[in-house]
Amino acid sequence: MISFLTFFVILLGVITFARIIRIFELSSELHGTDVNAVNESDNKTHSLLLLLFGTFFVITVFYMTWSMKDKMLPISASEHGVGIDTLFNANMALLYVVFLITHVVLIYYAFKYYHKKEHTPVFFVHNTKLELVWTIIPTIILSSVIVFGISYWSKITAPAPAEAIVIELYAKQFDWTARYAGDDNKLGKSSFRLVDGSNALGLDYTDADAGDDIIVRNEFHLPVGRDVVFKFHSRDVLHSAYMPHFRAQMNCVPGMTTQFHFKPTITTEGMRAETKNEKFDYILLCNKICGASHFNMQMTIVVEDETAFKQWLGSKKTVAQELKAAEVVPVAVTDSLAAHTDSVKVHEVTAEVVKH
Amino acid sequence: MSHDTHAQHDHSHDHGDHHHEESFITKYVFSQDHKMISKQFLITAIIMGFLAMLMSTFFRLQLGWPGQSFPILETVLGRWAPGGVMDPNIYLALVTIHGTIMVFFVLTGGLSGTFSNLLIPFQCGARDMASGFLNMFSYWFFFASCAVMTISLFVVGGPASAGWTVYPPLSALPQAIPGSGAGMTLWLVSMSLFIVSALLGGINYIVTVVNLRTKGMSMTRLPLTIWAFLVTAILGVLSFPVLFAAALLLIFDRSFGTSFFLSDINIGGMALEHTGGSPILFQHLFWFLGHPEVYIVLLPALGINSEIVATNSRKPIFGYKAMIGSILAIAFLSFIVWGHHMFLTGMNPFLGSVFVFTTILVAIPSAVKVFNYLATLWKGNIVYTPAMLFAIGMVSTFITGGLTGIILADAALDINIHDTYFVVAHFHIVMGASAIFGMFAGVYHWFPRMYGKMMNKNLGYAHFWLTITCMYGVFFPMHFLGLAGIPRRYYENTNFPMFDHLTDINQMISVFAIVGAAAQLIFIFNFFYSIFRGTKASQNPWGSTTLEWTAPMKHMHGNWPGKIPEVHRWAYDYNKPGKAGDFTPQTEPMAPGEEESH
Ligand code: HEM
Ligand SMILES: [Cu+2]
Ligand SMILES: [Cu+2]
Q: CB distance from A25 to chain B under 8 Å?
């Protein structure tokens, strides 16, 4: 009933509105003027409105940029991120200048040249010199944008230093798992076929490199001032590991390993002081649509000094220790599925047998 | 089937007036007349656009006031919004369908379908499209495609929910998200129909422009609208088949067990049998269409803009040849930049560098276009019709949105803003707003040509001012949300204390979005009101030089009674020194000693 009434009221409103417009149009037709033809006062009004709106808009753009500066991400907590911020700010400064110039010109012309009967516009068809100038100047400016951009990109994506700590970030719907490579700094092999309730990452327990790996959830730690290289995996759909405070991001792609490396430079404590927020935490979020809980797929990152980091890592069980505790004995078996595998040369994968 | 041949036929005989009786069905439904088909496209696009806009207000409610109950949501979405709070899956579904409808149905089918159909025969001086029959099919495939997409909203599991980019594996596996079941199947069916429509239309546009120009209409006398539509059609014909291939392979992966895009997947406690494929391959195929697609959306709007800016400045467009050159340059470059959507997929960093280079190059022809618009306004005599206001607004959005593209193109900077709200802000302003503004400008400008009536001017003004205010109010602040680290396609941001201080901005955006959506009702009202009740339009209400205003306002087949007018000059002789009146129609022969301008 209510919805019927609402509908009825809206319908009535629309009809009334239409009648009013109609009366308006008819009365001006009687006066011999076409209501819908643009007249000189319209031109004046709207040129003035464009001036006001345009000025307000440009001022708001600058004001908002200034007033929002403390709400943006805090200073970069990684080495390469500082450079990204500098490059970003330099590019932005350039864009603001271009934005300002073009908008001032647009608004000024729009305001100044509104239609006046006595005015005859110039017949200005083209001007090769002018056109060359405004093609070449952007070309030069953009070339430098390209050069700075590409050279910094190459630097960030250059191979990680050999001594970098290797960590795997493993994504699945809808959480993250981190795996440290352990003493040998080598990650043990894994396969999606080996995943089961107790082996969420599908680790190959027979791989010699796997035993010293350390698996952690909810929170992972990084030592300040050390290079870290992340290897990203996903076992179901695409995810993206986004660590905004470190200006770091990389997609996690099933069937593929991707990587990204950086050096954290500010500890969590340091950043808490910097942001004057005792509750501040670094965070890893998922940034590629991955399903219902995409918006809540996170892991806390703690950056601390090397000793604290070693201590924390030392307190965690290695894969071998955990297996032992759970009495899981790795047994090598020939998996019939492996015969169908055409991409990975796996001839022998392992299954595990849980005693009792 | 006389229609598809009469156009060529009439070139030699010139008896345009066809007096055969038309039934309701052939006139309004299965019409082969370009003017009617253009209206069909426009009205379908308005309906679909309204739907997509409504969806955006729904998910803006959720983003502004997460978790709060809005009974209206339960009324409309039913069990997908129990207690008035929408379900996360349906949030993603709405975002996906919103994006799909806006990009494909409104700004590709709607924009090109309306204006290429209306203007190509009119402005080239042709009696109709090369093939009226294929043209009719183009519309009905489009209609079917819209219908299937709309039906997909009602299937079990909901419509496709993997984002408008439908990346597999998410889009391939119903285990991953409910929308990847029947909803996704219908999405693919709908998209395939859409591609057929786009190809039929595109081929027709190209053939018509190339073959059916009237006497004297050389390529360098063509209005820029036609240049833009022609290049757009070429882009579409070259890139849509690639999307079709991607869709087809995805259908195979989903239904027939192939592994083009799938490998090493363990989901729902099961290792899948797919191995050897790559999800990244899909992205290459998708963006090989996807990037040209953004120019398929934008170029027609730019073409329309050139026409409207020149006409209403009462001045020739500045740098006509440079405008054509920049359209061609943008079109060419648009095929070699697709990788900028994929910097973080693990692609070779060197390849990434190449894409940075090609992408930033696009800014050069774009800048040229902006400067040419500014030079056209300079010392003009600007008439502020609603169309002109939208055209000026579009120059502004094209600048504002285009500039941030330079940031996103820079791979090093993209690392931190990829897939955040910065991207949402960028593409809505440069692609969404610019193209929509171009479309509005076109509707206000050519409405008299379509319906022989004027749209109400004051409602048009109100529509413009509310729209541009709300548009910037919605999308400009989103840049900052992105720079604060908020990812896109998030159902709510409340799980991260680091975003708590941005709640009020999200609410402000939602308020602007809802007011802006309401403002569109003014347009819809004005549009339908004016069709039936608008004041009668004069023959050439804006004082334009182009051919469409020489054809009789009364609906007729073949556009011109008697001979098709001959063309003697370009389309931009406004206030040419030595000529009477403030414009010289293209049909006016050169006076002795008069020099042709380019
Ligand atoms: C009516 C005003 C509009 C509003 C308020 C609006 C709002 C939004 C918002 C907030 C999102 C992001 C949602 C998320 O990431 O969770 C979005 C996505 C999107 N919108 Fe709009 N939008 C509007 C109009 C348009 C137009 C005109 C276009 C045409 C280009 C468009 C195209 C898209 C696309 C392609 C997406 C991405 C969908 C995806 O992530 O898969 N929107 N819109
Ligand atoms: Cu995820
Ligand atoms: Cu692109």
A: yes
Q: Same domain, yes or no, for A111 and A147?
A: yes
B535–A193: do the CB atoms touch at under 8 Å? Answer: no
Mean pLDDT of chain B: 92
Separation CA B18–CA B11 (nearest Å):
14
Residue B159 lies in a domain: yes
B445 lines ligand 1 (CB under 6 A): no
Domain membership of residue B597 (yes or no) is no
Q: What is the mean pLDDT of residues B138-164?
A: 95
Any domain includes A52: yes
CB contact under 8 A, B88 and A21: no
Pick A9 or A105 by higher pLDDT: A105
Residue A284 token pair: 């890893």
Q: Domain total for chain A?
A: 2
Q: Is B83 a residue whose pLDDT tops 70?
A: yes
pLDDT tens, residue by residue, A134-162: 999 999 999 999 999 999 999 999 999 99
- On whether residue B570 sits in a domain, the answer given is no
Name which of A15, A24, A38 to mutate to probe chain B: the one with the most chain B Cβ atoms within 10 A of its Cβ.
Answer: A38
Is B135 within 8 Å of B129 (Cβ atoms)? yes
What is the arithmetic mean of pLDDT over B116-141? 93
pLDDT score of A345: 35
- Residue A162 is which amino acid? A
pLDDT tens-digit series, residues B87-117: 999 999 999 999 999 999 999 999 999 999 9
Cβ B431 under 6 angstroms from ligand 1: yes
Chain A residues inside the 8 Å CB shell of B396: 54, 57, 103, 106
Q: Which of chain B's residues have a Cβ under 8 Å away from the Cβ of A120?
A: 381, 575
Q: Are residues A47 and A95 in the same domain?
A: yes
Is the Cβ pair A18, B169 closer than 8 Å? no
Indicate if the pLDDT at residue B70 is higher than 70. Answer: yes
> Is there a single domain that holds both residue A232 and residue A328?
yes
* Sign, CA torsion A73/A78/A83/A84: negative
Tens digit of each residue's pLDDT (9 = 90 or more) over B328-346: 999 999 999 999 999 999 9
**Closest Cβ–Cβ partner in B267, B496, B575 for A236:** B267
Residue B542 lies inside a defined structural domain of this protein: yes
- On whether residue A4 sits in a domain, the answer given is no
Q: How many domains does chain B have?
A: 1
pLDDT at A331: 55
Domain of B231, in residue numbers: 2-264+273-550
Structure tokens at B35: 């003017």
Q: Are A129 and A181 in the same domain? A: no
Put simply, whether B457 touches A (Cβ < 8 Å) is: yes
- Characterize B74-87 residue by residue with b for buried, 16 or more Cβ atoms within 10 angstroms of its Cβ, and e for exposed: beebeebbeeebbb
Query: A314 and A195 in one domain?
Result: yes
Interface check A40 vs B, CB under 8 A: no
- Hey, what are B581's tokens? 């009146």
The stretch B8-14 carries a mean pLDDT of: 41
Nearest to B485 among A50, A99, A244 (CB): A244
* Domain housing A80: 39-156
Q: A29 is written with which tokens?
A: 């037709």
Does residue A131 form part of some domain?
yes
Q: Is A173 at the interface with chain B, CB within 8 A?
A: yes
For residue A335, pLDDT beyond 80: no
From the CB of B335, is ligand 1 less than 6 Å away? no
What is the domain-level CATH number for residue B284? 1.20.210.10
Closest Cα to residue A222, out of A319, A281, A310, A158?
A310
DSSP B106: I
